[in-house]
Amino acid sequence: MSLLQVENLSIAFGGVKAVDGVSFNVEAGEVFTIVGPNGAGKSTIFNLISRLYEPSGGRILLDGQDITRLPAHKIAPLGIARTFQNIELFDHSTVLQNLLMGRHVRRKTLWVEDLLFLPRVRRAEREHRRHVEEVIDFLDLAAYRDKLIAGLPYGVRKVVEIARALSSGPRLILLDEPASGLSVEETKDMAWWIEDMQKDLGLTILMVEHDMSLVSRVSDRVLAVAEGKPLALGTSAEVQADPRVIEAYLGAEETA
Amino acid sequence: MRVQFKSSYDDDINLFQDNRHRIQYGILILLAIAAPFVLPEYFVGELTQIAIWSLAGLGLMLLVGHTGQVSLGHAAFMAIGAFANIALMARGWPFIPALIASAVITGVAGAVLARPLLRMTGIYLAIATLALSVIIEDIAIIAEPVTGGVSGVLAPIIELFGYEIDRYGTPTAFYYLCLGVLLLVTLMYANLLRSPSGRAFLAVRDSEVSARALGVNVANTKTLAFTLSCAITGLAGALYAHMVQVVNYESFLILISITLLLQVVIGGLGAMHGAFLGAIVVVLLPQVIATLRDLVNAHTPIALGNYPGMDMAAFALIILVMVIYEPRGLYGVWLKVRTWFQLFPLYRKGMFRRSRTYLKTERMR
């Protein structure tokens, strides 16, 4: 069974059908990328999966479990973590605190225990810190550990957001345009990390991305969408060669 | 510049960074304990006031500074704490259980109100909480069995471990009582901030969308913050009642709510220190203004200082200047001064300039 099954997913904002009958399956362990022109509904699909939007039709299944009607905060505990296109970090906290916030789904203590800071809380905190340090090592963030987010360069923030998602110990990670706004070099680093997440951590990755060099390098399968509808599904090369995809990006060639 | 060498995770978990830090706060607490032996009685009263307003400020700071929800109605929760404490003591409860119970009652009242209130955000939340301040005046008159109606109620003398504590009879003992409660609450507050619950508050403040994506139940977290905030403010209200001795419907006017909010803003939002610094300003500023008034009267031909509303105008002016030039409050000023000395002579002017925040997706609902 596929890890994530999206069946006939739809959402309309007023009269605009932002996502219209999109279906796809993400197999465990693969990198699955959604591409498409601006406004195609890629990020909307992400927001539907993380339940920030209410779908008007269709189903989302994780490991066979229907998550279409779960509230948004019940999604992370199931092992789905995500990043945001515009970076949604906690700006007034340090990198370390941000990553510890990523451990929220693994919290074991009640607020009363926290208030008294019982020995149990300290033990749990050390445990959280150990996991966070693994992520810091993995993404090479040690130099920024105690820096405030507000003072970090854009490229580092992108990595911190991925680190925060990894801190929760997910099975499936949703990356919303991980390379947008990054330099060529930073994009190459990002490609390494995506490959490492797939191969070393065994994660399943669902990604939205515009940078086709990154997409072709890391993706196992690619889905092209335009105007909320699926266009083509296949390997990166297949999708890029598909005439409907070319038409969606460049417009139809004039036929005499 | 001093660099801290960390050798275990506990260095980041402990309340104090290192021994130096520990000694600094130890000295501060010792000074607070020694103060009544050194200072004249008048100042002990002022210190007691600072302790009580710090406590109330901590309550509001938890909500405004650390969870990002505005409240213009916290005087109402001070009132609930005050009336609950006096009503329980009048029915024969000893002081300590009555104090704890008044915090619990205020917390429960806060929890009940939180659900409908916290569906609103920003300016709407401010207006809704402002309404609380208005309503509490009427409730204080109507609920006569508890609040004594228009004439109000008299705070009974506190009996504690065989001692009688009374604000006028034994001001020092009352000061220690307030200081003790303040220290206890401060410790619990600090505990909260270094644990998952406190981090959830900060997450809700900085980005609700990603808090939800990380599995934080935003509604529950806000409710918990509101509850704890009200409980702390209720404690402050109970102590305030014992300080002013008589409380009635006029004791907790809207002005108190506004002063409290200004206190945390002047002190510095998002830092516990801010509540304390703000309390010092709120308590001592009227005294400074009164002193200045005599000075102004002596040097102006028309006794400018005697015009009504001059104190409030001066107070307002200070706040305006503060908000425009130092939005991070007094604690922000302190951080700058400290950094200036630590880095001397390398401090640069732009070091604390807030970097521009990138586009946010808060509209997602």
Q: What tags apply to this protein structure?
A:
heterodimer, A: 256 residues, alpha/beta, Rossmann fold, 2 domains, six-stranded mixed beta sheet, four-stranded antiparallel beta sheet, 10 strands, globular, B: 365 residues, mainly alpha, ABC transporter involved in vitamin B12 uptake, BtuC, two-stranded antiparallel sheet, 15 helices, disordered C terminus
Walk me through the topology:
The complex is a heterodimer of chains A (256) and B (365).
Chain A lengths: L3 E10 L2 E11 L4 E5 L6 H8 L7 E6 L2 E2 L13 E3 L12 H8 L8 H6 L2 H20 L15 H14 L4 E5 L7 H16 L4 E5 L3 H7 L2 E6 L2 E6 L1 H6 L1 H8 L6
Parallel strand pairs in A: 3-8, 3-9, 6-7, 7-8
Antiparallel strand pairs in A: 1-2, 1-4, 4-5, 9-10
Helix pairs in contact in A: 2-5, 4-5
Chain B lengths: L9 H4 L5 H20 L2 H24 L9 H17 L4 H23 L4 H21 L1 H4 L5 E2 L3 E3 L2 E3 L5 H23 L2 H11 L1 H6 L4 H27 L1 E2 L6 H14 L4 H28 L10 H16 L3 H15 L22
Antiparallel strand pairs in B: 1-4, 2-3
Helix pairs in contact in B: 3-8, 3-11, 3-12, 3-13, 4-5, 4-6, 4-11, 5-11, 8-11, 9-11, 12-13, 12-15
Explained architecture:
The complex is a heterodimer of chains A (about 260) and B (about 375). Helix content of chain A is about 35%, strand content about 25%. Chain A is α/β, with parallel strands linked by helices and about 260 residues long. In chain A, helix 2 (about 95-100) runs parallel beside helix 5 (about 155-165) and helix 4 packs across helix 5. Chain B is mostly helical. Chain B has helices at about 10-15, 20-40, 40-65, 75-90, 95-115, 120-140, 145, 170-195, 195-205, 210-215, 220-245, 255-265, 270-300, 310-325, 330-345; strands at about 155, 160, 165, 245. Chain B starts with 9 loop residues before the first helix and ends in a 22-residue tail after the last helix. The relative contact order of chain B is 0.14. At the A-B interface, helix 2, helix 3, helix 4 and helix 5 of A face helix 1, helix 8, helix 9 and helix 10 of B.
